[in-house]
Amino acid sequence: MDMTIRSLVLEGRAPRIGVHCKLTPSESFPMSAFFPLQRRTVGALFAAIAIGCGVALSAHASNTAVTAASVEFARDWVVTPQAAFDLIKQGALVIDARGSDLKRKNGEIKGAVALVWQDLAEPNLPTKGRPLPVEQASKKLQALGVSKDRAIVVVADAVNGWGEDGRITWLLRNWGHSRVVLADGGLAALEKLG
Predict the structure, then answer these.
(1) Burial of 76 by CB count in 10 Å (0-12 exposed, 13-18 middle, 19+ buried)?
(2) Contact at 8 Å (CB) between 165 and 180?
(3) Domain-by-domain residue ranges, the chain?
(4) Digit-coded pLDDT (tens) for 113-147
(5) In 110-150, which ranges are continuous DSSP H helix?
(6) Closest Cα partner for 28 from 132, 106, 164?
(7) How far apart are CA 68 and CA 53, in angstroms?
(8) Less Cβ around it within 10 Å: N or C end of the chain?
(9) Is there a contact between 34 and 45 (Cβ–Cβ < 8 Å)?
(10) pLDDT given at position 97
(11) Which helix (DSSP H) or strand (DSSP E) does residue 18 occupy?
């Protein structure tokens, strides 16, 4: 992995760092390296990997994307709960990225497509956890109703999850789905809006 710092932009209290990286979806880290870590640590590591791969993410959702109309997909990977809620009301596909344990505990999201990152990863060693080839992933995504023409909101459990929503958003964006965002605060933040 070859990284060079491209930019550092301070916006209020949340720094945004843009880094150029030659890491591609086919170059992944084995998940076994993350097993001893807690869920929040793993989520932070996925965010660090995303930042290291040219993604400019702030610690919070973009302050400018507060409604669906203000979302700029090229810029906004994480949006406020209100913007995500508005996109969903306008017909965005909702991807429920929570693992089966959290879905059993908290219930299914009505109208959402269930997709965990493992569905888009190689299942067997020695490449276990590496993203699937684009052609293979595209077939799975099309079967779920995912298309490049439709906005997508990826939702997970921000407190108890592993950062699944970040990995799925990163994968979809790298595979050419430019209208994908994740909801800041996850499912709990969306439920507060209705």
Answers:
(1) middle
(2) no
(3) 3-193
(4) 999 999 999 999 999 999 999 999 999 999 999 99
(5) 134-143
(6) 132
(7) 26
(8) C
(9) yes
(10) 96
(11) strand 14-21
Task: Look up residue 125 and give its two tokens.
Answer: 């060693």
The C-alpha angle with vertex 20 and arms to 14 and 21, in degrees rounded to 5, equals 115
Q: At what angle do helices 186-193 and 81-89 cross, to 10 degrees?
A: 70
Tokens of 41: 């640590």
The amino acid present at 187, given as its one-letter code, is: L
CB 137, CB 175: distance < 8 Å? yes
Which token pair is 182? 């994740």
Mean pLDDT, rounded, for 17-41: 44
State the fold for domain 3-193.
Answer: Oxidized Rhodanese; domain 1 (3.40.250)
Most confident residue range from 18-32, 47-61, 116-130: 116-130
Taking alpha carbons only, the member of 46, 22, 153, 174 closest to residue 97 is 153
Q: Which pair of tokens denotes residue 155?
A: 């939702």
| Token reading at 165 | 């929503």
Whether the predicted model's global pTM rises above the 0.85 cut: no
Q: State the distance between the two ends of the chain, measured CA to CA, in whole angstroms.
A: 42
